């Protein structure tokens, strides 16, 4: 998807600019938020609406941390 292509481009640019620790942190946050979004979807489909909302909010908070990272 476009989302993953953009993530790959951003990660590659951090590698080429030799600021690898920032790229590693962004990759970690990206992967963790993807896991939480998938878990939220699974909880929703299983009927655990409160748990679904909590995991979805946690994923959004991690995404906000990702967006607010200084570049």
Tertiary shape: elongated
Question: Could you tell me the radius of gyration in angstroms?
Answer: 14 Å
Largest sheet: none
Low-confidence stretches: none
H-E order: HHH
Q: Count of helices?
A: 3
The helical percent reads over 70%
Mean pLDDT: 82
Report how far the terminal alpha carbons are from each other: 23 Å
Strand content of the residues, in percent?
Answer: under 5%
Q: Could you give the count of β-strands?
A: 0
Structural class: mainly alpha
Q: How would you characterize the overall build of this protein?
A:
The chain is mainly α and 71 residues long. Helices cover 86% and strands 0% of the residues. It has helices spanning 2-16, 20-46, 49-67. Helix 1 runs antiparallel to helix 2 and helix 2 (20-46) runs antiparallel to helix 3 (49-67). The longest helix has 27 residues, at 20-46. It is elongated, with a radius of gyration of 14 Å. The chain starts with a helix and ends with a helix.
């Amino acid at each position: 998807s476009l989302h993953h292509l953009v993530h790959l481009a951003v990660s590659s640019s951090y590698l080429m600019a030799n600021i690898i620790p920032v790229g590693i942190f962004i990759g970690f946050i990206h992967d963790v938020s993807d896991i939480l979004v998938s878990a939220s979807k699974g909880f929703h489909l299983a009927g655990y609406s409160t748990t679904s909302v909590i995991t979805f909010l946690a994923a959004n908070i991690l995404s906000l941390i990702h967006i607010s990272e200084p570049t």
